[in-house]
Amino acid sequence: MLEGKGVVRETDMAEEMQNKVMELAHQALDAHEVSDCQSIAHFIKQKLDEIYGPAWNSVVGNDFGSCITHMSGSFIFFRVEMMEFLIFKDGKDFTESREEVIRVVQKSGNEDS
């Protein structure tokens, strides 16, 4: 389990939803090995689908890139210690959607703010 507090890098989510997503991330980290990114991502996606309806996506790891389209108000990119979380609701069928490009580069011994 990672003990650190979540640090939001980018988001367009309401604060209440951000808090819920980070709470779910911590629950996932408690329930699964830190190295099991697929299970952590699946846990978060499944819980968000139950709470906020289907079409949520969850990407977890420390070395990934992405280009996504998401429904406005459903995007958050944050980290807990060295683990990165990209969470969003699919926006392909919604009139109000945005495209985001996220590139995570694993840095050795260098934290960016």
UniProtKB/TrEMBL annotation:
Q: Which keywords does this Swiss-Prot/TrEMBL entry list?
A: Cytoplasm, Cytoskeleton, Dynein, Microtubule, Motor protein
PANTHER family, per this entry? Answer: DYNEIN LIGHT CHAIN (PTHR11886)
State the compartments where it is located: Cytoplasm, Cytoskeleton
Cited Gene3D superfamilies: Protein Inhibitor Of Neuronal Nitric Oxide Synthase (3.30.740.10)
Q: Which Pfam families match?
A: Dynein_light (PF01221)
Q: Which GO terms describe its biological process?
A: microtubule-based process
Q: Which residues form a coiled coil?
A: none
**Might you report a single GO cellular component term?**
microtubule
**Which GO MF terms are attached to this record?**
dynein intermediate chain binding
Q: What is the protein's name according to its record? A: Dynein light chain
